[in-house]
Amino acid sequence: MKHILIVEDETHLAIGIKYNLEAEGYLVTAVGDGPAALKILEEHPGTVDLIVLDLMLPGMSGYDVCELLRQQGNDVPILMLSARILTEDRVRGFNVGTDVYLQKPFDLEELLSVVRNLLSRRRLPIVSPRTLENQTPAASNGAPFRFAGGRAEVNFDTYQVLVDGQAVRLTALEMKLLRYFVEHEGSVVTRSELLENVWGLSHSPTTRTVDNFIVNLRKYFETDPGQPKHFLSVRGAGYRFVSGT
């Protein structure tokens, strides 16, 4: 049975979400603040499959809870709930590591659909046909993606990233962005496409969110980030990913 942790200080809302999730067959625990949630996760590691996290919490915000968990290496799926409607708030949520940002008031069926999706897709390895050409035989069965030449190795099943044999830690959103590029290798993808399919945003924010994340990926994987060979800019269009040198 999947275990869902609700972190919500509005008692009536927490009770309603808990009731409906339990009706779907999930084991549900509800707490009213961030420290209580962190205590459960610390004392019972690996027992929570999904966190439904309110943004505006007393003392410690949902941003802070999410960011701390990601810094600790906890990749549990996080569904963030918030009444804030600004794009910048959604972007900040994604930047600290949330998987889905759902605006209040939300539709119950949408919430349940997102929960099912997050629980079913967790840590599923995805590779593209072109990528398989650059994998060892064992990798094509077991899932780590390898850049040509073996300099970088990413396993989407375990979230393990190695560059020149050294471990590199990517955030959940950086992994999601990298995975999208792998799936669309060779194709030009626009910023709008990335914002919609990776960030879940229907329109561009005022910040250079996508560009900043591309800078991070280049820093991790390019030999010379100033002269990228994998994450290429396509002027006036977007970006194109190639695994070869």
Itemize the secondary structure elements and their pairings.
Blueprint: E1 3-7, H1 11-23, E2 27-31, H2 34-43, E3 50-54, H3 62-71, E4 78-82, H4 87-95, E5 100-103, H5 108-121, H6 129-132, H7 137-142, E6 144-146, E7 152-155, E8 160-163, E9 166-167, H8 172-183, E10 188-190, H9 191-199, H10 209-221, E11 231-234, E12 238-241
Parallel strand pairs: 1-2, 1-3, 3-4, 4-5
Antiparallel strand pairs: 6-7, 7-8, 8-9, 10-12, 11-12
Helix pairs in contact: 2-3, 8-9
Summarize the structure in words.
- The chain is an alpha/beta fold and about 240 residues long.
- The protein has 10 helices and 12 strands.
- The chain has helices at about 10-25, 35-45, 60-70, 85-95, 110-120, 130, 135-140, 170-185, 190-200, 210-220; strands at about 5, 25-30, 50-55, 80, 100-105, 145, 150-155, 160-165, 165, 190, 230-235, 240.
- The longest helix has 14 residues, at about 110-120.
- The chain is globular, with a radius of gyration of 19 Å.
- It starts with a strand and ends with a strand.
- About 30% of the residues are buried.
